[in-house]
Amino acid sequence: MDPINILAEKFKEFPGIGERQAKRFVYFLLHKNPSFVKILGEAIISIKSQIAECESCHIFFQIKPHQDKLCETCANPQTDQSSLLIVEKDADMETIKRTKTYKGLYFVLGGLVPIVTKDTPTFVRTNELQAVVKDRIKNKVLKEIILGLSINPHGEHTDLYLRELLHPLIENTNVRIVSLGKGLSTGTELEYSDSETIKNALKNRG
Ligand SMILES: [Zn+2]
């Protein structure tokens, strides 16, 4: 296979990219100057060598010397360890962080739990979540788990699913599970919510 087809095949594996778009990307690159392509190539290589997944919250973060296992939020001693906010994806965590209202820990689920199939897809980190919650309960610092999922059928299904999953772990403890959704209107996508909306949702969680 020639380089055009090799690259097109790779682009086809990107989410939502078909054959024609993949080819368009290749021809776009062929028309760009060499420095653009060089920077792009190097950036692609560095996301594997310079970015790591946080062992605790699973967000992707830039590795720093002596800090290659935990992200800045998880490694920061100022972070409120009594609160754990579960979100679907990295972008949702960024949206909430921008409000500067929530000072606790996060957990990035990696996706939502599908309504139709019984099996939870492997990209939804339910096992990792159970492990983190168990650990935090053992340390006796955790007081509240906040489910911060989008307000649509998929998000609401995940909310219920996680409540059932975590219930046995928090039984006979003082940990409570609340939802951010109580303060959000139907159809709200967390990622695209403004800071005021999130602030209100945090205030009215329950
Ligand atoms: Zn982290």
How does this model look, in words?
The chain is an alpha/beta fold and 206 residues long. It folds into 2 domains: 3-49, Helicase, Ruva Protein, domain 3 (Orthogonal Bundle), CATH 1.10.8; 67-203, Dna Topoisomerase Vi A Subunit, Chain: A, domain 2 (3-Layer(aba) Sandwich), CATH 3.40.1360. The chain is 45% helix and 14% strand. It has 8 helices and 6 strands, in the order αααββαβαβαβαβα. It has helices at 3-12, 19-31, 34-49, 72-75, 90-98, 126-138, 153-170, 195-203, and strands at residues 51-53, 60-62, 80-87, 104-108, 144-148, 176-179. A 4-stranded parallel beta sheet has the order 4-3-5-6. Strand 1 and strand 2 form a beta hairpin. Helix 1 packs across helix 2 (19-31) and helix 6 runs parallel beside helix 7 (153-170). The mean pLDDT is 90. It binds zinc ion (ZN). Zinc ion (ZN) binds at residues 54, 56-57, 59, 70-71, 73-74.
Keywords for this structure?
Helicase, Ruva Protein, domain 3; Dna Topoisomerase Vi A Subunit, Chain: A, domain 2; about 210 residues; binds zinc ion; two-stranded antiparallel sheet; 4-stranded parallel β-sheet; alpha/beta
